[in-house]
Amino acid sequence: MAKSTEKAGSSGKYPLDKSQQLELYRIMAECRALQQRAHDLFMQNLVKGTTHLGLGQEAIASAFGLAMRKDDYTFCTYRGHNHTYVRGITMTSVLGEIMGRDCGLLRGKGGSMHLTSVENGAMGSYAIIGAHMPIAAGAAWSAQYRGTEQAAVCFFGDGTTNIGAFHEAINHAAIWKLPVVYVCENNQYMEYTAIRDVTAVENPAADRASAYGLESILVDGNDAELMYETAMTALDKARSGGGPSLIEASTYRHFGHSRADPGKYRPDEEVAEWIARDPLPAYRSKLLSVGIDESELAAIDANTESMIDQATEEATNSPPPPDEIAFTDVWADGGAAWRN
User: Fold this and answer.
1) Mean of all residue pLDDT scores within the chain
2) How large is the angle between the packed helices 279-289 and 58-67, nearest 10 degrees?
3) Is residue 3 predicted with pLDDT exceeding 50?
4) What is the mean predicted confidence (pLDDT) over 100-114?
5) Dihedral sign, CA of 31, 34, 39, 40?
6) Is residue 240 pLDDT above 60, yes or no?
7) Which of 28, 32, 26, 61 lies closest to 255 in space, CA to CA?
8) What's residue 332's pLDDT?
9) Which CATH superfamily does the domain covering 18-209+219-311 fall into?
10) Domain boundaries, the chain
């Protein structure tokens, strides 16, 4: 086994002021509420199919949501609720889509695994492992060609690092110095298998970065401010022509792979250890320790609860999509003429 890559620490280059800290906490709190409510709605049989939740992984998407420009591009996996929401999507449209309602982001036609909002730079959630990595490289190539200083950020799970598209996309991104940031959310497990059991290196993304001439970046994905600094560093590098970054963020999903998975293959002690490192209460404690008043955080919590309750009511009361849209959005011109 190769020697472990050390986790990166803070350089202090991108300190957050109080307003930014509160904004980061707000985004994380809203992501947590959204994920928890999706879980609750599933248990009430109001979500058809399944969901892949990011409970416990909110710090990563939230930090990038704060760091990214509005015109940047996000590519994510089927576990992409948080990543899509932080780009400026409403709670109602996310819950509505998960529930298959007409108020959903895609009018209920995409469902939990395919959240997309091109107007907000959320360029799709991909259910095929690794499929979005070369697409993100293509978006970055477009930005490079047009000289817009936009960046593409591509989130993927640890299992993707053993897929061919992972290596192909990063190789091309490195050769062409594309403005793309690849973020491996290593939650320690693929579907039901520990990544460490099927990978030749200890850190599946960070330990492979040098093969493409990239810096090895291993970071605590549950440290919200460190994730923000890591995001800003990579985004600035991308915008300035420095090329791609490959980040491995260590984190943990609180539940199984999907709602169909009880996650019993994980040792109880391991689960307990990671839940004790839950990023949301950890960041709340940090903010209190640096002098932010409890009342300010409580106000964010109360507003978040009100928002998620209102979104739940709106989504629940929304009708299913009408039959007449069944054959729209299936061809480039939005029609169904291809069927003939």
Assistant:
1) 94
2) 60
3) no
4) 95
5) positive
6) yes
7) 32
8) 72
9) Thiamin diphosphate (ThDP)-binding fold, Pyr/PP domains (3.40.50.970)
10) 18-209+219-311
Report CA-CA distances (Å) from 339 to 324, 328, 332, 336.
Answer: 16, 12, 13, 6
3-state helix, strand, coil in the chain (%, to 5): 45, 10, 40
DSSP secondary structure string for all residues of 167-232: HHHHHHHHHHT-SEEEEEEE-SBSSSSBGGGS-SSSSTTGGGGGGGT---EEEETT-HHHHHHHHH
Residue 182, pLDDT above cutoff 70 = yes
Residues 256 and 53 sit within 8 Å (Cβ to Cβ):
no
Residues 72-84 have a mean pLDDT of 97
Q: Which of 153, 127, 154 is nearest to 51 (CA)?
A: 127
Q: Are 76 and 284 in contact (CB under 8 A)?
A: no
- Give the model's confidence band at 337: pLDDT under 50 very low, under 70 low, under 90 confident, else very high: low
Rounded Cα–Cα distance for residues 137 and 20 (Å): 30
